[in-house]
Structure formats: structure tokens, C-alpha cells
Amino acid sequence: MRDMGEKRRHHGHVHGVGFGVGGGHAEHEEKHKEQKLDMSGLCMDTIPHLTMPLGHITTLDLSNNNLESIPESIIARLLNVVVLDVHSNQMTSLPNSIGCLSKLKVLNVSGNLLHSLPSTIEECRALEELNANFNQLTKLPDTLGFELHGLRRLSVNSNKLTALPFSTSHMTSLRALDARLNCLRALPDGLENLGNLETLNVSQNFQYLRELPYGIGLLVSLRELDVSYNSISALPDSMGCLTKLVRFSATGNPLVCPPMDVVEQSLDAMRSYLSARINSTESKKKKRSWMPKKMVKYSTFTAGMMTPGRAKVHGNAEGGLLMSDYRSLDGGRIASPGFLSMLSPRRLFSPRRNSPKH
Predict the structure, then answer these.
(1) Is the pTM higher than 0.90?
(2) pLDDT tens-digit profile of 91-107?
(3) Transmembrane ranges (predicted)?
């Protein structure tokens, strides 16, 4: 294929495989065999007018040119394209008509000048691989994950992203997520829903990424995790449950928990350390669980009815009643039992009596 491309450039012509000069049965067979249009590396500033039919093209390669845009009309004619490669150009935007590519599975727009992706990309519901590395993306469409359920690989490294879409947790077919070299401040909630995710790289977000969500430890299929060169001081205890993890890097973080020497020792050492923290936390919760209930039980009435003061328990140790100390009234006179009887539940909640007439 590369030899054919070199020959095209040498003669100054643009041909797609299956569109060579000549005719006859051999050309007809070749046309239906390849279905690829390769226009890569031609130093094109614009795409020349194409008179050939594009409806049967399954692969279009426009990479390594100087294209600033792709005409809407060309994209709209690529009804059966499966692979669209436009990497290493000068494009600042993608045509909205990209949403017409209902059979598109692989889209490579890396190495351009894109600041955003069109929202119509959500209409490419057959998309399995999206490569948008080395652009200037500041955000991705918020609802991207709600529509692209079949996406398996999402690569957005070397951009200016401060966050991933909140809908990322709906990309349940995702196998690999590469978001390194951005400005991520946090990872989206609901990561635990990505049950098929095997590779996650969020390294080199430097001072921006300070913590990882608890859900990262619930990624049951995760095998490779790179969080190096961030500002993470503690790994979530849930990472002790990553039993399938075989490759992990946290170099360049100010880790305190677990200590870096534990992390560098081995994966098993890190998992053991974090698992022990989980067990310790659960044990402490069980020991404290009864205390608030007892206090609420005994203080329900007295907190609202008795005069403020230092709490004291009267009665036996098991069924004691919390009561406030007596407070001094009128210059030191101790409140009498008769006065306290005015605050008794019977008096306060009994039906009101008519006052005697004078």
C-alpha cells in the first residue's frame, strides 16, 4: 500500500485502491476487494474534487497532510466508511456531518488543533475506538457516554482537559482509557460501572490531580493502572481489592498512605497494606455502633424538658435515667420538687382545665 502511495505522489495523481487506470474484469474485482481510499502524505491543504463514488469506501486515510478542514459534502457521502483516519493535520474542527457515519468504528483525529469535538459524534453509535491525542481539547461532549455504549478504546492524552464527562461511567464496553498529560482535577463518579476496563492511565496530570475516587478499587477487570506524576498523597483503601492488577505505577506522587516504600516493594505488599486498613476501619465502626443509639434513647425527653446543666446519671447502671443537675434560682435558692412537678409530662400533656372564676 505504501509503494502504491509513493507511486501516486511521483505521478501527481490521487487514486484510491480499486480506482486505478484501466478497465476490465480485473479492475472490477479489485474495486470490490479493497474499498480503501488512501490520500495520506500528499501535503494537501485542501481535498481535491472527487468525482468517484464514495458510497462503498470502508476506509478513508487523509493523515499526514496540511488539511484545515474536511468538506461536509465529502463526509456525508461516506455512508459505509468504517475507518476514518485524519491524524497529523491542521484541523481546528470536525464537520457536523460526521454524525452521518452510522457504520464508523475507528476514528483517529490525533495530532490536530481541535478545541472540541462536535456533539453530533454521539450519533456514531457503532464507534469502538476514538483517538483524539495531541490536540487542544478543553472538554468532551457531556453526554458522550450515554450514546457510545460500544466504545472500547478512548485516547485523549496530551490535551487540556480539566475533567472527563460525567457520562463516562456509562461506557460499559470500555477496555482502555488513556487520559494522561492533561489537567484533570478529578475522575468522574461511577467508575465502578466500567466492569470491562483493563487499562487506565491518568498519569502526568501533575499538580491538578490530588486524589482518586473510591470506585477505582472496584474495577474488577483492571490489569494496568498508571497514576504516576500527580499530587496524590493517599490511595483509596478499596484498591486492596484489585486482584487482577498486574502493572501499577505511582512514581512521582507525595504518597503517605501507603508509604512509597511499600508501593515499590510489590503489588501484593500494597494490596495487603490497603486490605488491612479496610479491616481495621470496619472493626472500629462495629465497636462504636451501639454508643449513639444508647445516648439517643436516654436523652430524647430530658434534652428538651429539663433545665440545662451538667448531665448526670441517676439510678442503676443498666437502666439509668439521664437528668440535668438542679440549677440555682433567685440568688442561690435551690429549685424545689414542687417547682419541678410543674414540668412533669402529666401536667404538660394533660387536657387544659378551665381556670376557676374569681
Answers:
(1) no
(2) 999 999 999 999 999 99
(3) none
Whether 242 contacts 211, CB under 8 Å = no
Residue 258: asked if its preceding bond is cis (omega within 30°), the reply is: yes
Q: How far is 80 from 7, CA to CA, in rounded Å?
A: 27
User: Grid coordinates representing 305?
Assistant: 424538658
pLDDT at 51: 85
Which stretches does DSSP call E strand in the chain?
36-38, 59-61, 83-85, 106-108, 129-131, 153-155, 176-178, 199-201, 224-226, 247-249, 311-314, 321-324, 328-329, 333-334
Domains identified in the chain and CATH numbers: 1-19+28-136 (3.80.10.10), 172-306 (3.80.10.10)
* Strand, coil or helix: 312: strand
- The cell for 345 is 409530662
